């Protein structure tokens, strides 16, 4: 759809593709040094916000709660793997098996936590979990290679997703919804009704 000028407000309405692209453009600068933030986490939770039904305060709270919780589970998985990574030996297969056991335990705990209402957005927890792994093992974040920095970086970028979803819609400059006009008074006929 082309750009449409509204009559009442005189503002231009941008297509969502343009407004969302403006917000996406701005996020790229977070990748630059010294921050090196994992901006892909923004896009994951941005899309997740629309999968929830669109930007709203309750959806943002649910997404941020879930992604932060999931990021916490990611930290626990990394810490457990550090301690148990060689419990089956030092070979590649043995270390992979140890990691599989850690993932099994942490994943099961994460899914069980999702039964609690505040943490019921399980896909959001996986967004946060995966974002911590990608940030930590990918060398991203303001202090690459440090788990605490990976957690803060991933959780912060996940939290920006719902905000960016909201900004993408706000930049469309959509006019405010018109107040509904009162219904005209109904005229009743006094005619008899025959069965």
Short description:
By secondary structure, the chain is an all-alpha fold. The protein is built from six helices and two strands, in the order ββαααααα. Helix 3 crosses helix 5.
Q: Quick one: biggest sheet?
A: 2 strands, antiparallel
Structural class: mainly alpha
The general outline is: elongated
Kindly state the percentage of residues in helix.
55-70%
**Total strand count, please?**
2
Mean pLDDT: 87
In the predicted model, the low-confidence regions spanning at least 5 consecutive residues are: 1-9
Task: Give me the strand/helix succession.
Answer: EEHHHHHH
User: Order of strands across the biggest sheet?
Assistant: 1-2
Please report the number of helical segments: 6
From the alpha carbons, calculate the radius of gyration and give it in angstroms. Answer: 24 Å
End-to-end Cα distance: 52 Å
Instruction: Report the portion of residues in β strands.
Output: under 5%
């Amino acid at each position: 759809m082309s750009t449409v000028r509204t009559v009442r407000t005189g503002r231009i309405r941008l297509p969502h593709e343009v407004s969302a692209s403006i917000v996406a453009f701005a996020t790229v600068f977070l990748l630059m040094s010294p921050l090196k933030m994992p901006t892909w986490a923004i896009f994951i939770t941005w899309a997740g916000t629309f999968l929830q039904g669109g930007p709203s305060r309750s959806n943002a709270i649910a997404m941020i709660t879930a992604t932060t919780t999931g990021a916490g589970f990611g930290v626990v998985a990394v810490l457990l793997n550090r301690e148990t990574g060689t419990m089956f030996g030092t070979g590649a297969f043995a270390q992979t098996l140890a990691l599989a056991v850690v993932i099994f335990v942490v994943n099961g705990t994460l899914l069980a936590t999702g039964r609690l209402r505040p943490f019921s957005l399980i896909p959001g927890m996986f967004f946060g979990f995966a974002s911590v792994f990608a940030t930590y093992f990918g060398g991203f974040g303001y202090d690459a290679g440090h788990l605490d920095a990976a957690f803060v970086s991933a959780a912060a970028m996940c939290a920006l997703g719902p905000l960016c979803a909201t900004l993408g819609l706000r930049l469309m400059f959509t006019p405010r919804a018109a107040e509904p006009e009162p219904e005209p008074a109904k005229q009743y006929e006094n005619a008899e009704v025959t069965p």
